Amino acid sequence: MITRIAIVGQGYVGLPLSLQFARSGVNVVGLDIDQTKVDALNAGRSYIKHIEGERIRAERDKGMFAASSDFTLIKGVEAVIICVPTPLNKNREPDISYITDTGKAVAPYLQKGTLVVLESTTYPGTTDEDLREVLEKGSGLRAGVDFHLAFSPEREDPGNPSSVVASIPKIVGGYTPACLEKAVALYSKAIKTLVPVSSCRVAEAAKLLENTFRGVNIALVNELKIVFDAMGIDVWEVINAAKTKPFGFMAFYPGPGLGGHCIPIDPFYLTWKAREYGQHTRFIELSGEINTGMPVYVVRRVADALNDRGKAVKGSKVLVLGLAYKPNVDDDRESPSYALLDLLKHRGAEVAYYDPFVPVIKHTREHPHFAGTKSVAWDRAIVAGFDVVLIATNHASVNYQELADWAPCIVDARNAMAGIATKPGQVWKA
Ligand SMILES: NC(=O)c1ccc[n+]([C@@H]2O[C@H](COP(=O)([O-])OP(=O)(O)OC[C@H]3O[C@@H](n4cnc5c(N)ncnc54)[C@H](O)[C@@H]3O)[C@@H](O)[C@H]2O)c1
Asked: Which of 82, 167, 206, 239 is most buried as measured by Cβ atoms within 10 A of its Cβ?
């Protein structure tokens, strides 16, 4: 009977999962090494736009949820769920140090019978090799004998109001059948549908398939966007027509490039691991090449639009609309908007951005030069002062009719201007 758990990593994945378990009657301690997050949570404040502070306060006040940076609390829990980042390093290789560091921090406090579940997206073998090793070494206990070990990938879709943790089926793979049984018992407290699989590796691979599938299909429509444009055909109209087929087709949409913590990164975890087995992941490489080339294509469209007005990119004022990587969220990780800003700046444009969800750019490892830059205000005189507005993210709260009324020229990488009254030659699809 599991009544008290720890969830390590209180980010986009760990926090909603913690609240779901707490709501389902499991006592949760949310562990994080970031003291500002711990303090915010204990004060009942959210730092993620789509999670209301009210939800945190409700569970905190019932005594079902508290945050901490004290890993000794692991001693008193029956299960530990790990939701820490899995980025790529500067050579674009998997960096699983957050997982192994967490394993090292958890291990000394592991008790006999405790269940450890990894949720971070990663290559097959991370749970039963890398994580198992650090847990066994640091605890003196053996996985599958003294403690349980499992992998269960997260399927959070931030910003999608119908994406509720409890109702998204969850894959679970165990190191042993007993580990699987224990993990299923844990998740069935909070999640309606569980999908048990035969091993941690199958569960890890299933997550990579899901994300690679998206990356490859997005690359396909990105390529077709350019091909159809050369033929004078609008790819958006084509996709909308094709998706009326009730079977065998799934709509994906083009854009200015991939963003977010998952799709641009996860497939390369698989590529890296495949090399160890002498295998090549050609679909992943090709789609990566197409998708990372998209910002260059979009900037070329900006240059075309300016050229049409007798202007050069150099010296022109360009406003990038949307810094978040997808609509209606405040998550700007891996956002292609940064590549667009960099490319335009490099070509001598004067760049600025507007994003109602990202009022100021935080310091990041990848784009330290943009730290502290503020979003411009949504104001007729300001927007009209730019030579081009480049729509990189189609936030629903933006008034696109006002944009059409104010901006002299719009380059639209999201089909956001569909159905808006515009002037002839004002909008360039990209
Ligand atoms: N964000 C998503 O939509 C999403 C969806 C599916 C899967 N994932 C995967 O889930 C994992 C977590 O992603 P996220 O978006 O929640 O990341 P995040 O950056 O929002 O959160 C990670 C948290 O872990 C904390 N942390 C880092 N190292 C730690 C350590 N050693 N001990 C304790 N806490 C530590 C950080 O301070 C941060 O609060 C990643 O592997 C990601 O690929 C994310």
From this structure: 82
Per-residue pLDDT tens for 253-262?
Answer: 999 999 888 8
**Cα–ligand 1 centroid distance for 14 (angstroms):** 7
State how far the Cα of 326 lies from the Cα of 393, in Å rounded to an integer.
6
From the candidates 179, 200, 262, 409, give the one annotated as an active-site residue.
262
Distance CA 370, CA 342 (A): 9
- From the CA of 69, give the closest atom in ligand 1: 33
Question: Which atom of ligand 1 is least distant from the CA of 156?
Answer: 5
Q: State pLDDT tens for residues 270-287.
A: 999 999 999 999 999 999
Q: Would you give the DSSP letter of residue 88?
A: B
Looking at the DSSP bridge assignments, the partners of residue 338 are none
- Please state, rounded to an integer, the average pLDDT across all residues of the chain: 96
Q: Ligand 1 mean position to 122 CA, how many Å?
A: 12
Q: CA nearest 158: which of 168, 171, 173, 148? A: 168
Helix (H) or strand (E) segment spanning residue 40: helix 35-42
